[in-house]
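Hey,
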Amino acid sequence: MQSIQRLVAIESVEGVHTPDAPYGEMPKKALLEVLAIVEELGFTTKNIDNIIGYAQYGEGDGDYIGIFGHVDVVPLGEGWQYPPLQGVIDNGRIYGRGVLDNKGPILTNLYALYALKELGVTFNKPVRIVFGTNEESGFGRVQHYLTKEKPPVFGRRRL
């Protein structure tokens, strides 16, 4: 829960574009934070131009399995019962901007992969969890990713 609270605390709405933060400082901050969490869990990481990054489990530069998500959010809006940037836990539920779209789900994937890693489960291809920073405003980060990395394989029978 602390990991999602760390990410929810970052208001990662697209902001002013700069060369060092192509989708704004806050999406960049969220990307750096999720990559710090990834490193704490012992995965290999890569940050691609502060636009997109990934966790990788397994070795190799060939084919890999890709799980894509994002750490940016839409503006906070109004009507929140709980502070949207605190990740308040009440009655076994966590509340905050990004908990369902998509900080929570992508961290769930990360922790599932971490559990498999800790159990010693291996695959015949590396697995990457890819974290983008602009899904809410066009998904351009995937196109950028594909200029730097080969596309993943999906749906193959013998993993």
